[in-house]
Fold this protein.
Amino acid sequence: MKSRLAVVALSLLLTLTLLPPGQAAEEDAVCAAFFYEEGIKAEVVLPVIQSLADNYSFFDIQSYNIWDHYDLYHTTLSAYHANNKPPLLFVGNEYYHLDPESQNFDAALAEMEKSIQDFAGLGNVPCPVDEKGNIIFPRPVCILAFYDFTTEEDAVSPYVTALQDNITYLALYRFDTHNPSNISRLEDFTDMVGPGLQPPVLIMGSQSYTPAKVSVGHVVNEAKRLSKTGVECPEVESEKEICIVYFGSPSCHLCVEAKKELEKLEVLYPQLNVSYHNYDYELDLLFRYLNSTEGSDGYSGSFYIFIGDRLFGEGQFGELEEYIKKHLDTGLECPQPGSTEKIKKEFEELTLVAIVAAGLLDGINPCAFATLIFFIAYLERMKQSKKALFSIGMSFSAAVFIGYFLIGLGLIHLYDKIEDAGVKSDYIYLFAGFFALILATFNIFDYFRIGQDEKTILQLPGFLKRRRGRIIRVLTKKRGMVLLAILAFLTGIGIAFLELPCTGQIYLVIVAAVRSTAVHWTDSIPILLLYNAMFILPLLIILGLFYKGVTSQKLGEMQKKRQGLVKLLTALVLAIVGSYMLYLVLW
């Protein structure tokens, strides 16, 4: 792979060195932001990007390692509505995914180079990130439409629809010329656009377009040309702005639907100014908005819409639109975030209770109990002292903790991969919901089968049970206590992975929930540590009881008596989670 990429890079560099250098005196500067992650891809792309800068003197590049500029990277992705992974180059209103392993790599480079030349023809294009670290792109193309809403809608609507379909970043403001004040506004543009402005008319930059005189295609093409850097709205008194702050996640079905509804409202009410935030990466900011908004206590939803001093959520879009209509004449200033302390503390307390409860429920899983009891019983027969058995049991429990923790980290990274494929979130939720309900059903069946002394459905397969027993027997033959403790540790690691099909029912759900609320995957580590501490707590209690004189046979009987209750509680948790996931997708 490395050799192939090296050949690609060499050929591209040779090609670029033959390109005519830019004329700095004739063309204004064009600045781009390049985000990369250290590795073979960056090693290929960075020299190519630098070669472009060397060949075009008007072209300048800001380079950012995403791990050194993590927040800036995700803020930029959010601003451009991008979901690709690095390497990524942002220039003006455009961005390019430059993956040397992609079949479209050469085409992407060629398109990017042509676009850079087009940018130079437009004039000065500032860097996407200013000196203060603020994202100044993308900028919308501002279009002012003056027409009579009653009699001229049919003449203007084809232009409006075509612009909305073809221009990614569009700020379209409509003025009803039936209102005399809007005729006065139109007259204010005489100096900038020229005399003789009559509705219906579209104003874009310093140009005006009369629907009866120019085609839809001509207006759209002109807007596309200007859309590379956007067009600012001229100074004109317009309707009072209504500011909305939205928080959601691209991997959340209800959030995706809510974002679509907000975009519809933006079309209906041009004075709306909506800022979109991904709470996967801006959780602290969400906490601050919640803390400054009255009535947010106790709210639990998939997405959050802040407007004025109100919070709107699921099933409230009708109320939201009525609230917008109520303030069309007065406008609404942007909500201001408060401090994080109060609500973050409440959130952490809620998370603490949920994680402790889930970890304990998972820890009293029959599979986990049975393994330790089997392990102790086997060592009992070998006539080891209780002190030795306690040390060996502690080593075994520590290994289960570490093994289960490593599994959790692996699941978190798997969840990240799934989240990156945000377009498939519906299918993921659908599968997870049905899977959880199926497991809940099996647990209920097991509850009744246990009462009838029948074999349960959800348990370790026979071959894994035999493998578990074989591992314990082989590693616990007559050896010294220190060696036995080491071997018990290795056994615990192996058992943690072998038992995952039986113990992982709740763990899979909890890990997904933990990752969805963490800003970065490392933020999940303390919660995983707590969960796994609760998971092995029942094992440690069993070990303590054994040390105090309770036999393995008695421990086994205690576990057997509570096996049905554990199955019932597990079924309840899975049924609630599964039903909620299906609700998110289907309703």
User: Anything to note?
Assistant: The chain has a mean pLDDT of 76.
